[in-house]
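Tokens help. Consider this.
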Amino acid sequence: MSKATEVFSPYDGADYLKDLEDAAAYLEAVLEESDDPAMVAQALGTIARSGNVSELARRVGMSREGLYKALSADGNPSFATFVKVVKALGLRLRFEAVA
């Protein structure tokens, strides 16, 4: 008897973000679960990959490669870049009191 070989493709969360509501919920969950700026940058990168990265980079004022690098696991985007990306994605950054 031969065993069937299962083939798995790499998981990419970007494949599951279908609209801005999904993107906002994903980013909110990451912000609630982690205070690691690299995780937040990586989440923005995932959201960016779910759409047109070239168009997003143009709206942010960066090259496509620069945007990929800034929003990678090793990226360290400035707060200004973070805000520009959030706005260019059509999202709003809000703060609320928790204490």
The mean pLDDT is 90. The CA atoms of residues 86 and 93 lie 7 Å apart. The chain has one domain: 18-89.
